[in-house]
Amino acid sequence: MDATLRVRNAVETCDGITRAELAADLGLPLGTVTAAVSGLLRGGVLVERATRSAGQSRAGRPATVLVSAGRQRLVGTVIWSHGLLRAAVATYGGSILARREFAIVEENSDLDVLEPAWQFLGESGEGPLDRVVLGVAAPYQRGVGLPPGRLPAPGRGARGNEDRTAPEDPTVRFGFAPWLAPDPAAVLSRRLGVPVDVENDANLGALGEAHHGAGRGHRDQIYLKLGERSVGAGLLLNGALYRGASGFAGEIAHLHVDDQGPLCPCGARGCLSSRTRRPLLELMEHAYDRPLTFPEVLSLADADEPAPARVLRELGRALGRPLADLCTFLNPGLLVLDATLGGAGRHVLSGIAEQVELFCAPAVEAGLTLVNGSLGSDAEILGAVHLARTEAMSAVAEVVAS
């Protein structure tokens, strides 16, 4: 019965799967899976569906996959970034059925900022949701929310000058969205009536590219996300997402690069973020005699306009120097660049590659591939779907174990 429950849940949380894939996903013997599947087929819980791969001969018998005989179980995804909400409804297999974007007011400092997305998920007409994943443009620790900091020492205003003898203060969150402290997952779950998982947006992008896009087949990889206002990274080590002890892993924007640099909202001084988007965009104003938006810079760079292309290469160099050290330390086989940059991403990759070649250990650099992602903004949605399936299967495994 235990194996049957796990097999049923695994089939219901995908768009079709073979017996061999089930055995691999669940870590069960193929014979055990086959026996459980036979019982579920006889009971009308599962059905087999013919599918023909691209290279399969039409004369041969088509392969079959197992699917649920009932309604599809659906996942709601909401990705929050500064000024924007992106909501979607998808199947567990990654088919996106509905989506919408909402501009939001930055000053809204409580959970109401997410309300337009919840309304869309409830009114999409695609059916009831099985669970929801919320992606956030901030570090996140399960059960805690935003990682806590320490209060500054008297008369001091920056981290690095904080009182390190003081205990961590859960009320200090250094400039990130206050509604993420404490962890909002339980409150949102009660609000929506389904389990809610919260995850960093770059981590979701990493999962999406790793399982559905350019990162497939690589167990050790770094995903680099570049947004209009932020930069972040997701780390997959030995095939698993690495979040760190307090959810701060991958916060590349907050690597220290300048002892005399400006203060950062995170509480530190001289973070890498001070050398990325805003200063480079200000340089563009002098070349074009007007302010340019980040999308405009991307469009001009994609057309090989000299100034924007150079700016993005410089951005790549600024990111590439600390990334080279990170690659030497972690030895990934792949670095995937956020595909939302479009064709302009090649200039960023060029700058990163230059620094990696110069400063990465030769043995590591020789085994490292740099690529553009292939999923665009769907990377985070598909990563959220993958996380939802992982959590759904873990929940059933815990029930079986108890």
TrEMBL record:
Compositionally biased tracts (Low complexity): 145-156
A Pfam family of this chain: ROK
Region (Disordered): 145-168
Compositional bias of kind Basic and acidic residues: 159-168
Family note: Belongs to the ROK (NagC/XylR) family.
Name listed for the protein in its UniProt record: ROK family protein
Species: Actinospica durhamensis
Lineage: Bacteria, Bacillati, Actinomycetota, Actinomycetes, Catenulisporales
